[in-house]
Amino acid sequence: MLDLTDRHFRYLCRILSKNMLLYTEMVTTGAIIYGKGDYLAFNEEEHPVSLQLGGANPEHLAICAGIGEDRGYDEINLNVGCPSDRVQNGSFGAVLMRSPDLVCDCIKAMKDRVSIPVTVKTRLGVDELDDYDYIHSFVAKLRDAGVDGMTIHARMAFLKGMSPRENRDKPPLNYERVYQLKRDFPDLHLSINGNITAIDDALKHLEYVDGVMIGRAIYQNPYMLVDVDERIFNHKHSRRMSRKECVRACYPYIENYLSQGGALKHISRHFLGMFNTCPNSRQFRQYMAQNHYKEGADISVLEKAMSFIPDEESSAE
After folding, report:
1. Model pTM above 0.85
2. Do the Cβ atoms of 150 and 178 come closer than 8 Å?
C-alpha cells in the first residue's frame, strides 16, 4: 500500500471507523535513520495506529522501533511479505521468509527495545518453500521469539518469474491453511489478509481467526468502513453517516493542512473512491481530476464535485 495509506488517508479511515487498527505504509529503516524527511508523522486522531517497518538488520530495526514508540505509535509491525523489486534488492520483505532465524533476531531486538506490541505481516511461503510444514515451522519460531501477533496474506510469494503486481492476485488463495495455523497456535493472535473485499467476508473469516486485514478494497471503496464499528466491534451508532458527511467531517483537517501550505490534491486524491457505487460517480471523479491539483484549490472543489452526486444516494449501500 505504498503511496496510498499515508496519514491523510488514515485520517479519512478514522472518520469512518473509530476502532479498527490502522497501519502506515511500509517505512524502511534506512529512510528513518538516514533520510532527511519526516517519515513517521501521523495525526493524533489516528490511534490506534501501527508503524510498519521494512528492514533486515536487527540493530537498525530496534533503533527504528524505539523511535516509533517515542513518537507515539501503538504497535510495531515488521513486513516479511512484500515481494516488490525494491525490497528484494534490499533483502527484506518476503525475502526474509527464507531466513526465519534472522526474523527471530529482529523480533527479539525490537522487543528488547520497546514495550508496545511487535507483530509480523507475512505470506504462506516463498517460491519453492510452499508446504504447510514450512509455514508451521516459521510461525512456531516467531512465536517462540516472542512475536505478539501475525497477519498472514493467504498466498505464496513468488520472487522469481512473477511481478509484484501479479503477486497480489495470481498465487492461489489458501484461507484454510491460515485457519489451520490458528488451530495449531491457538494462543497466538492471528489475522488473515488477501482478497477480502466486504464486511460480510470479514465476519466469515472471524469465525476462524482473530483479525482481518483489508487493504486495497478499502482504498477503492473507503465507505465500506462505515459499518465496521457496529458490525465488527459491536459499537452502535446513533446514526449512520452518509458519504458526503464523511468527506465534510474532514474539512477542518483539510483547511488546517491548506493553511500550512499543503496542497488539496495530497488529501483529496484519497476521496476518489468514496462515491464509486453512486450515480454520477464518474462526473465526481472527472471534476476532481480536472480541478483538485490546481494552485489555490480548496474545499469548494470538493463541494462542487459532490454536487454531481444526488443527496439521497450519498448514504446508499
Report:
1. yes
2. no
